[in-house]
C-alpha cells in the first residue's frame, strides 16, 4: 500500500486520536489497553519526554490491537528513531523540506502538519494528501478547514490543538476531516492515579463522537 494510502487508513481507524505525553514508559501498555477497551484503535505518543520511544516500543510489543504513532517528530533522525522503536506512523507539528524529503524513503508513513494554504500546497507538491491541521483552534478551526475544501478538494485532515470532547463532533462533521487529535483522553491526573477506568470512559465517549 502506498504511504499516502496507508496514513489515510490509519487516520480512519478511530474518529479521535489520543495525543499523549508519557513520563513513565511502563504505564504505556496499560494506557493503550484502556484506549482499546474504550473503542480507540490509534494513539499518538509525543516525543516530548525521555520515556517516549520506550513507551512506543512497549505499546507496539504488548498492545498490537492499537496503531501507535510517534508525534512531535521534528527531524529526520526523529523519524528514523520512531520507526526503529516500532511506531507504525509518524506525525510532526509542522513540516520542513528535510522532513518531507526523509519521509519519501521512510519505512513508516508520515503525516505532515499545516496551518496555511501555502504549507498545504508544499505538502501536496511533495506527494501527501493527508495532513495534521495544527494548531487547529488558533489557526482558524472549522472555518479554515471549510476554506481549504474549495481549492484543495482532495486534501484530508486530522485537526489537533484546542479541540475538546464538546467541540470535536463539529470538526468530524466536515467532509475533509478523517479524525481529530486530542489530549483530553488521558488527563495528567488520571495517568498519575492510574485511573484506567476513567480513561476508558473518556475513550468510549470519544469513540462514539461520529455517531
- Within CATH, the superfamily carries the name Aldolase class I
Q: Structural class, from secondary structure content?
A: alpha/beta
Strand order, largest beta sheet: 5-4-3-2-1-9
Q: What best-fitting shape do the alpha-carbon axes yield?
A: globular
Number of helices: 10
Highest-level CATH class: Alpha Beta
Give the strand tally.
9
The stretches of 5 or more residues where confidence is low (pLDDT under 50) are none
Helix content: 40-55%
Radius of gyration based on Cα positions: 16 Å
What is the number of domains?
1
Q: In CATH terms, what is the architecture?
A: Alpha-Beta Barrel
Estimate the mean pLDDT confidence: 97
Question: How far is it from the N-terminal to the C-terminal residue, by CA?
Answer: 29 Å
Strand content: 15-25%
Amino acid at each position: 500500500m502506498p504511504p499516502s494510502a496507508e496514513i489515510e487508513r490509519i487516520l480512519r481507524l478511530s474518529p479521535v486520536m489520543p495525543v499523549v505525553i508519557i513520563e513513565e514508559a511502563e504505564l504505556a501498555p496499560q494506557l493503550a489497553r484502556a484506549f482499546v477497551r474504550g473503542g480507540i484503535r490509534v494513539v499518538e505518543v509525543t516525543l516530548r519526554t525521555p520515556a517516549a520511544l520506550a513507551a512506543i516500543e512497549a505499546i507496539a510489543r504488548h498492545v498490537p490491537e492499537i496503531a501507535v504513532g510517534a508525534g512531535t517528530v521534528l527531524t529526520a533522525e526523529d523519524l528514523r528513531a520512531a520507526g526503529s522503536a516500532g511506531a507504525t506512523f509518524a506525525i510532526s507539528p509542522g513540516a520542513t523540506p528535510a522532513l518531507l524529503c526523509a519521509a519519501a524513503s521512510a519505512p513508516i508513513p508520515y503525516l505532515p502538519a499545516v496551518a496555511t494554504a501555502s504549507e498545504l500546497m508544499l505538502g501536496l507538491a511533495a506527494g501527501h494528501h493527508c495532513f495534521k491541521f495544527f494548531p487547529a483552534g488558533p489557526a482558524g478551526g472549522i472555518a479554515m478547514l471549510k476554506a481549504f475544501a474549495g481549492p484543495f478538494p482532495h486534501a484530508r485532515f486530522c485537526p489537533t490543538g484546542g479541540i475538546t470532547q464538546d467541540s470535536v463532533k463539529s470538526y468530524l462533521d466536515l467532509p475533509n476531516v478523517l479524525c481529530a487529535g486530542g489530549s483530553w483522553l488521558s488527563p495528567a491526573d488520571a495517568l498519575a492515579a492510574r485511573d484506567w477506568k476513567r480513561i476508558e470512559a473518556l475513550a468510549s465517549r470519544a469513540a462514539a463522537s461520529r455517531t
